[in-house]
Structure formats: structure tokens, C-alpha cells
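Anyone have C-alpha cells for ABC transporter permease? Sequence:
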Amino acid sequence: MFFFTIRRIIASVFVLLASSFLVFALCAASFDPLARYYSQNPRPPQTFFDNLRDELGLNDNFFVRYWNWLSGVLTGDFGETVNGTPVADQLGGRLWVTGRMIVLAIVIAVLLAIIVGVIGAVRQYKPSDYAFTFVAYLLIALPTFWFAAILKEFVAGGINDLFGRQVLFTLGEETPGLALYADGWEIWTDRLGHLVLPTISLALLSFAAWSRFQRSAMLDVLGSDYMRLARAKGLPYRRVVLRHGLRNALIPLTTVVALGIGTLFGGAIITEQVFVWNGMGRYLIQNGIGQDDINVVLGWLLVSAVFVVLFNLVADVLYAVLDPRIRLS
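Reply: yep, here.
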């Protein structure tokens, strides 16, 4: 198990290096740091552009520029924005805002997918299976922004009316200025009220697809020979399903969840726009693409790539835990 994990870590490092190269190549071909000066009236003289190209290192060849950027990233320097502020200082706080939403959404989506998938497989073609299937396909068909808007307009209002006070919030990740007069518990309660709806929006849309994979995997396992053998030996049905079937049925779901991290980051961009969260998504749209800032886009894409590679590494380790035979491969 130890050497299996080491091999996967080394492979992940090479994948991450390849990802950083592709990210830099795409951004270098798509963004021009001097573009915002071309439309100024009056337009700066050519000497201004020549000096700025030298300052930004744009006259160097592609591989030198990539190495300068990568060596800075390895030391925690993601460059500066067009306004002169360090990208790393802004990424940290915004990553915490988006990260807590995505991690919680993953936990909720995985738990719901396992429960619904197992129930749907065990009770195949029963009313509960048809109900879960209908709900799953309905959620899969809903656009992210529309589903988030429904939660914002109807669910929040209904819950707040039920409690007679504002329990769920629809704007921002916390109440502005609350830290100036509130204590720790009140702050965390306020953040939780802001966190519920964006997290549910991400979690339910992911759970819908993941539950179908879990149901399909569980159906394959329930029809396998070793499951019939376990039942023939007199083991209780519940124990056979949970101890023998579920463990093997989790392997395909692990793959799907690991590959879905990138989709969650994409969904977080839309969700943060709807709920006005100052996280990674709004940072990319407003400060990166909106201002044609290559360093912001590079930082966002690299952080996303790190999370995707990291979760795939976790998935590889979980494969070995769920199926010991994989450790020998």
C-alpha cells in the first residue's frame, strides 16, 4: 500500500506539471497583457509598449516565460494583477470562500448518491425507485443558474417565513460588518445561513448524476456470483448488501466523483454569480476575464488543476482500500 501510494503521488506530480504547461500555453495564446492600452485615447507611444514588454518579459521565448512563471508559483508567487496587487494574496481568501462550499457540497452529494443509489438498486422498479429516478433526471435537466435562482427566490422565502425570521440568506457569504459587533458563534451561524443555499444548489445537481452511477454499479454487484454465494451461505441480506456489495459498488462512484471536481468548480462560478459570493468564480469572471488579466486566469486555472489532480490521487488511494487487488497493479 505504501509503495502504491508513492507511485501515484509521483504520477500526480508529472500530471500537474503537464497541466501547468498546458494552462500557461493556452493563456499565453489567449491573453495579451498590453491589450487594455491599445484602446486608450490618446494611445501611448511605441516606446511605452517596448518598455512594458521588456518589463513583463514578453520579449523572451515561450519556454523562458513558462519557467519564470512556474518558478515563481513554486515559491508562492503567482504574479501581480493589472492593478499591481499580488495574485497569491487574493487567491487565498477567495479559495477559502469557494472551498468550504465545494467540500461540503461533495460530502452531501456523495452521501445522498450512495443512499439513493443503493435504495434504487435494492428496490428496483418499485415506486421509490421510480420516484428517485424522476427526481434525478429532473435535477440533471435543470440549468445551474435556474436551479440556484429557484432556491434563492422560493426556498429561502418559505423557510424564513416558517421561522419568522431570516434564517437563510441569498446574498454574499456573510453579513457585511458583522465581525465588528458579533461574537464567534454568531458569526459562524451567520456564515452557515449564507452557506446553505449555494451548497444545496451544487450538491443536488451533482448528486443527481452520481446517484445514477451508484444505482447502476449496485445492480451489477447484486447480480454477481459472489453475492449469490454469500446469500447461499445463509448471511443476512442486509449484511450481504452493505458488507460485500456496497464496498465493490463504490469503486465506479469514486471515479465519477474524482472526475466531477472540475465540473463542480465550473458550477461554482455560476453559483457564486447568482448568490453574489466573492469566491474563486467571481474572481475569475470579474478580475480575470473581465479585466483581461492573464495572471488571475493562470492562478485560477492552476488552483483548479491542483484540486482535480489531488482528488484523483485520493480516488486512486481509495481504489486500493476498496479493492486490495488494485495495489498489485
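The chain has a mean pLDDT of 83.
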